[in-house]
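Worked example 2:
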Amino acid sequence: MQKMRIAHVAGPNATITNAPPLVTSNKARAKAGLPLLTDDAGAPSRFDPLRAQRLAAPVEVFIAAYSAHPMEEDAADLYAPPDGYLDEAGHFAPVADGAHTKPVYRVTLDPADGLYPLPYMGLQADGSAWESDGTSPFAPREKSRQPFFPDGQRLIEEIDRLGVDSTGIGNNVSNHAEISYFRVLPSAGYTKQGEVSGKDFFPYRPAHLNFSPPRSSLATATNDVQRIMDSADVDAMIWTQGSPRIEETSYWFSLLIDTVKPICANASQRYTGQISNDGPKNVADSVEWLTSGVWADEQGRNMLGAVMAQDQRVYAAREVVKVDARPGGYDAAGGHGGILGGAGGVAGSVLRYIPAMKHTWKSDLRLSQLPTHVPGHAGPVQIKDAEGWLLPDAIPKVAITKDSSYSEEGFDSDPDQEVDVIALIEKLPGFAPLCGLVSEGLNPYGKPASSARNAILRRAAFSGFPVVNVGRGNTEGFALAGGPFIAGSNLTAVKARILLMACILKFGMLPKAANPKAPTPAEVAAVMAALKPFQQVFDTH
């Protein structure tokens, strides 16, 4: 039986592929005559924390029998005899005698075994200890180490080698699937090979060297992921990214990637290797979910679109949101489902709900269905190249604007007071030929609280900008249609922005009125007609 072939795709700003700083151990500090790490009382720290590393050569070790658990020796009569015994000087004998009394297992550790937890012995080039990622606080890139993994290989190896499930079994990934590795906007890069931070890779640590992918990189991600999913050598995909950002990317993939294969997203609230880190479990749960096949219909097609497996819950990409920086800090927005099932618990992978909204191979916005050109602010805009791949310059720029009560400047409701929206109308087309607005207004209806705000957004719509209205925060009700606006369903403003960006790639911008402040009846009718396909998508995706 062939194991499932899963592509692991390493994305940007990903805590799940980020390790805590490699801090020099006390063993190395003592060896170099450096001050030791101490506890709160000023005494040397009790233990050196162990970091996964590789042996350079085989080494024979003696492991104290019955030391894996405090109660092992209580059941010593259930065990086979040890390999031998040590005396006080550490000399080995195969049988116990008056001198050799300490029972041990004799084993050779080999580099081929894989990673071992060992003290970190590295020092800086000047002989000082490593205390953080950089050689000094706020060190430049060339003086800083990279804490992120370049792809998923090390993450998966640590899961397989160091992680065990509730039954005591390891290899929780490789026992079940064959993994291939891809880098799409990755978190770490090979600088010695010419890769540049902020262009070829996107870290957030060290904090002063933080870079986020630009809007145009969505085209790169879409094209690369579509190629991966089109491959006959790939049966499924795991996408890893930073926990505050992955909800947007996974929804984008669910809208644009044309595939019947399953896509599962994973993030982590804590670094890989940090105490109680959650990332490895999430990845192992994704592998369990994907290999279970519960996502498949009778023809083997994915019924769910992109999903996100976090903390043993499986969320629809459309609804999943991060609400707190802790394991378990995810929720299903919208108040109408979003948690489709579970993975990694005692019940295994289970599916309880199937989304009614369109996705992946059903999506009206999937890459294969996007046109080559759409109407832009100043004329037709090319969306795809001759081979059908998204063009980076075509990714729309959609801004989010918020409104709240008691924001009117006076009793005249003058729309010219809304300087932020006026600036967006004037400036957005200079950044992108395709653009739009999402307005977060009253909950759940989406209507702006301010009459002036409503008037200036109406002016934006008749200036060619598609405008979506959504309710505040995590709304459970549905935004109402009305005026030249798109009702944003029960989406958060962030998710509505993603859907509007995809819609603009499909339909372009709206027809402009000669005078947006006073459109003619014919111009109003043209805008309302152009909004219909937008609304149909917002009602079904």
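The two ends are 37 Å apart (CA to CA). The chain has a mean pLDDT of 95.
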